[in-house]
Amino acid sequence: MNGEKLRALFSSLSDKNPDKLRIPRLKLIKRKDYEKNHLDIASDVIDIEMKGYNKKITRSKYLPTVSLNANYNNVHTTSHLGD
Hints:
This protein is about 50% helix and about 0% strand. It is built from 3 helices and no strands. The longest helix has 23 residues, at about 40-60.
């Protein structure tokens, strides 16, 4: 495409003057900042923690249980008849 075709195409898409547009300056963010602020990564970390808790809960269902029941009866009888 030549310059005139590009200008015509741009003017059909925008009302801005292409000669006065400034190209934005983009900066890369640091990896630590990205990992700290990215919602998908935070969601995945929480999901991993929850799966770990669910694993422990499921495992505890199959552990043996111990039950202890005790009963103590003390019956003291005194007979007042014919002693």
